[in-house]
Structure formats: C-alpha cells, structure tokens
Specification:
Helix content is 36%, strand content 31%. By secondary structure, it is of the alpha+beta class. The protein has one domain: Gcn5-related N-acetyltransferase (GNAT) (Aminopeptidase), CATH 3.40.630.30. A seven-stranded mixed sheet has the order 1-2-3-4-5-7-6, sandwiched between helices. It starts with a strand and ends with a helix.
Length: 173
C-alpha cells in the first residue's frame, strides 16, 4: 500500500471512499435517511474545499492498481483545546482493506505531518457507538471527553481520544 499526499485528480476516488465507508461503517448507528442522502458529488465538493483552505492536509492509501483504498485528513485542532494542538479530522478505509494495516499507515502519516509542523499532540473525535473507536484505543489514544454533534437531523454522542506525545507514538510505530 502506497501512502501519498492527495492531489486534485484523486478527489473523485476519495469522495467515493468517504461515502461508501460512511454507508457501511455507520449503518445501524446513523439514520438510514442520512446515509441514503450522502452523494459523491457533495463529497467531491467538500474535498475540493480542502485545497482552498490550505490549513488542512490529506493523505491517501493507494493499492498496487492505483485505486484509493482509504484516506486521512488532519490539521490544527479546531476547538482550541489547550492540551492538544493537532487533530485527525477523518480517517476512512474501505471495508475490503480494513484489518491490513492501511488505517495505521494513514494515521501515522498524519501524526508525522503534524510533528513536522511543530505540533506534538493530537486528538480525534469518533462516534461513541462506533466499533471503530477500538482502533484508536489500540494505538494508545486516551479517552478525553464526550459531547454531541448534529448529523443530519439527529444528535449523536462523540468521544475524543488524545495522544500527548506524537514523538513517542511515532517511535513505537
């Protein structure tokens, strides 16, 4: 699996990964109405905005055939948490590529990029009901706090996980 920084040509594939992973990962957690409303076009638009904003970055995992198997988006922490300066905004891997280390490679790419920006701590927000939160626990994330977010017309509880020292995390990788 090759990890590389996203480019404009990757956006349509990244949008498909985002929509398809939401539909599988959050089935039974997020309302079916919301999941059915997701569109590749809207996802492409949002991904295109990443390039315009400039303060976020995205890595993709590409298989041997060039197909994008997953992606991760990171940048500066958005809620002004005094203890965590970086944030993993999103990490999605297609179901057929899960359990093979792809998510870990993307996660570590984000951690390395944050560290290169002088940021040595990071957090991520995850739906509390998501079984994928165990991925972050296995990577040593400590549970920080819970709150609620709006997804479509409903509220869902989210939990944050944090890493105080990215240099330690990267040494152990």
């Amino acid at each position: 699996m090759k990890i590389k920084e996203v480019n404009v040509a990757d956006i349509p594939q990244v949008a498909r990964v985002q929509v398809n992973t939401w539909r599988t990962a959050y089935k039974g957690i997020v309302s079916a109405e919301y999941l059915d409303s997701l569109s590749y076009e809207q996802s492409e638009e949002r991904m295109g905005q990443l390039f315009a904003e400039g303060d976020k970055f995205c890595y993709v995992a590409q298989d041997a055939s060039g197909k994008i198997a997953g992606f991760a988006v990171g940048g500066r922490e958005r809620t002004n948490n005094p203890n965590y300066k970086g944030e993993l905004y999103a990490l999605y891997v297609l179901a057929e590529h899960q359990g093979k280390g792809t998510g870990r490679l993307l996660f570590m790419a984000v951690a390395r990029r944050l560290q290169s920006m002088g940021i040595n701590s990071m957090l991520v927000w995850v739906l509390t009901a998501s079984p994928y939160r165990r991925f972050y626990e296995k990577l040593g994330g400590k549970e920080l706090e819970k709150t609620f977010v709006d997804v479509g017309k409903e509220k869902y509880e989210v939990v944050s996980y944090g890493w105080d020292d990215l240099s330690l995390l990267l040494r152990e990788a």
